[in-house]
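Morning, I've got a small favour to ask if you have a moment. You're getting the sequence in one-letter code plus the fold written as tokens. Thanks so much in advance, here it is:

===
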Amino acid sequence: QSRTYAEWWDDARRAATLLRESGVKPGDRVGLLLPNCPEYISVLHGIWLAGGVAVSLSPLMVSSEVSSLLEATDCRVVVALDMLAPVVRGADRQPDRVFYTTLCDRLPYWQRLPYLAARCVRLGPTSPIGRSGEQWLDLARHEPMAEPVPVTGGDPAYVLPTGGTTGRPKAVTLTHANLLANARQLESWCGTRHGRDAVLAILPFFHAYGLSTCGLSAIASAATIVMHHRFVPRIVHRLLEKYEPTIFPAVPRVLSAMNEYFRTKPVRRRAVQYVVSGGASLDQSIAEEFESHTGARVVEGYGLSEASPVTHTGPLDDTARPGTIGLPLPGTDARVVDPETGTRTLAAGEVGELLVRGPQVMAGYWNDPAATDAVLHDGWLHTGDLATMDEDGFFRIVDRIKDLVIVNGFNVHPSDVESALREHASVEDCAVVGVPDERTGEAVQAYVVLTPGLSASKSELHTFLRERLSKHKRPSSIEIVDDLPRNFLGKVLRRELREAALERGAVR
């Protein structure tokens, strides 16, 4: 399917009218449970035109996670993919209105029947519409909104979870000014040619990295957006050759998989000029091989959801330094401080916590002032990452203060996985750590202590978690142990567990 910006703008205005007629008032939250598809962009802007706040609901979530976020944000309207109807219907907290869209009408004809068959298997009837408040998203039936609802740059625009979705979710609140700033920063850094570039959008829009690099910054530069709803190397190869995108935001796993594919089927058209890799540390050998296949310049960047998300990236000339995250984006300040005090700036080469400040830094966590105050001090965002800065201002990430695990660029909080494991009747105690993984950057490794007198197999625990956690949160490996290493205060020594996993090669 091909859409022009004029058509997208028309759809956005029609979506705004639909939402207003559905009872959405200025400041109300509207959930988006969609993969990359044209409706994501048009409805997102329709929400903003109607004065609403978009809530990012990941298609990777399970019903309980969707329910928690809907409850936390008091979100009463959701726009979802038809295939994800069971996720919405299974949520304890039900929205008042659900609008469904489908991928079926823009799939090749030989894929439409399997899509409809899969939908029938998942939903029972051939249509997802079966409950009060559910209907198809039909924008053509509504007139375009004449005038948008006035908002300010400081008003909330986008709320997205950043882990911690068990119990009370912690969700980042990004303002209109935050999103606009990051889009303009990336546009400026990439030196995009207005209306002449094309961006390959396979990173998901429901993730801050994909939304900013593949969506909003591309729109800011009037670039052609070549989108696909999932990453498949064969399809990416075809998109590269057919549409010749010039900019390719990616994560290391994608580049590694494409390298493997290119070894047997080289790309014939070398249109890609720049690749910015984020979400996880990039192995230089992966970058060099991708450059050899495509002729593109590959640099590494850095960001976090709390900063819309990009704060650093490598220069796109010949001055990028392998192993570093590059330089701060325009308008962004960054420094390395003593992690003990959080205030004393360290000299070049010293390891400390990375702090960032700029127009893309979030307003705070949604309805959670205590969590906000813990990371925002005098405009400086404490990232929780240990870093160094060299004499020329290039930053390098060394480690993380937090116990956060990053799987394919998605944040996984060990406490979420541990809470889910403890729901099993046979689990007395458990601990979760992240270990390096060649495919995903990091993988989740779980250690479980069983209740005396009870039993549970590893496969049983994997099956148990499959219904409670998103795919990226599920442990790649579960080890059943007699006890967990602890210090004299009883705190689990995660470093010892991580080292034990590496020694045994539990995660490959």
